[in-house]
Fold these 2 entries.
Entry 1:
Amino acid sequence: MPFDGACRGPAPLFARDAHAYGTYRMTRAGTGCDARLQACASMSDPRNGAQSDMNDPGLIRLLLRHQADFMAYLMAMVHDLDAAEEIFQNAAVVVIQHDVAEPIRDFRAWAKEVVRRQALHYLRDRGRSARLLVTEPELLEQIDSAFDEAGALDEGDAGLRQREIDALRECAGRLPEDQRAMVSMRYERRESFDAIGATLGRTGQAIQRALSRTRRALHDCVQSKLARAEGTP
């Protein structure tokens, strides 16, 4: 799936896909991959009295905590949301089946390697990895570096990402109906600008400009809410 904007280095690349994923999550919160992983965590929780061969329910909760980052990481690699969700679920199986006797010192780094390997397996199985691995090794390094940089920032405030997601969801709920429709068509249905324009009776370029304004409005709204929550004038 193509993303808007130009790539100018590791951080913009990852941030661009992270923003696209965040916008997508805003429209499909609590469905699909999220719901299945939440069910896995619930099944493996001894407080629920359920029997399961899953080794450590804490691991799946950690994976859910970092899900937005991993999905952005995957989308930067495969540029396809359905593929990214499939790969993430495959990685979740590996995480769930981890031997608890083997300690994990850095879950994020360990899980990133699991996700990365699952992505490369996926690409190989579909015959798309040769181009990625042979002609774009620098791209993989950039994606890895950007992911690690994002993780370093997250360590300073573990709850920041969740507050951002909550603020984004609230801000999105206040968008006018036509803007919500454009966001849904672009990030949930993954329609092209021209296709959205045909539906709404506008040109593709007009839709692209409108979505750009909507993203800026959402960004400003989220930053304002975060600033108020922190008591910043």
Note: Confidence is low (pLDDT under 50) at residues 1-16, 24-33, 39-55, 129-135.
Entry 2:
Amino acid sequence: MTPIEIDSAVRQWGRAALSFDILLRPECYTHFFSREVPGALVAYQRFGSCEVVMGDVVAPESDRLKVVQEYLTDRIAQRRAVLGFSWPKDLAEAAVDVGAAAAQWTAEPELDPVHYQPSGKHAKKLRSYVRKLRSHGVEAREMARTIQAKGGDRIATERLVADWLQHGPPRGSHLLEVEPWVRSNDKRFFGVFDPEAEDRLWSVLIAHPIWGRDGWHLCHLMHDHEAPRGVNELAVLTAVETFAAEGCGYATFGPFASPEAGPLIGFGSILKPFLRRVYDAVATRGGYTHTLEFYEKVQAHPWADRYMVVTRKHFPLAPLRALLDLTHALGTHGRHPIVGHTPSGALTAETSQEIA
């Protein structure tokens, strides 16, 4: 398949929030092209000896399970290690049927903007913050045309992104790089403005499309470290209200680590309790807690379960090493060599165009 055909497939069938990254950083991905379903593909990155597939396969809805089983059957036969990250439940169960194992370690908040109502134990705070800011004349809006011009909103956004990268939380647990102007025509930008300085942004939210669901992923949410409380909540609510006015029925953010491990499928009886104890110990120290609490204001549980899928023969060394690289070092995105990670510049023509 040509790059144009891959682009078309993702735009037609990309159902996961992380599918956009296939187009955002094409130099980092290698592709398995399905023989059984023409045009379908599995995009993966190499971390050491492990192939990492994030989110979902790129295939028609009716053929997704067939494609993932074709891919895993091929990899298991070739004795290759595979790590599926943040896979939906049906994909994980299909993987287990052909000899993989799956663990529910993450979850993804999903909402319908058209029928959205904040709910849950933190929703009162969200409403209170938004009401207070709006009563003080704080403006929040989508920056559509103005964000592409080299001035005004774009300069304010660049300034805020630089401030957030300097003063914001550590980048280690973020899966997608903050690169606002890469494929910016596909993205949407929502800003909250300082009422006393029109050229200053207090908060910005960047969303990118989930084409296969006709929806949006609320990807990067950044705020000025001197901004008043509630600006992030106002940015998210502005985006949700905008999507609702357009009749959009799907939006998501995350995935986030679950507070505790969920079902473990396909693992042995000895390994299950060990993995559960390890996960629970790590989860209590993870860097997700603050973000998790914020999004609980926006969307109450239950969230959609997401699974880590591994080829059992290679577990735990290669997949777990890849998982550590994935969750703690993706901020470099191949620009600097890291343990177990093939830098994008080291990808050869053969690996970048592999056809199984």
Note: The longest strand covers residues 197-210.
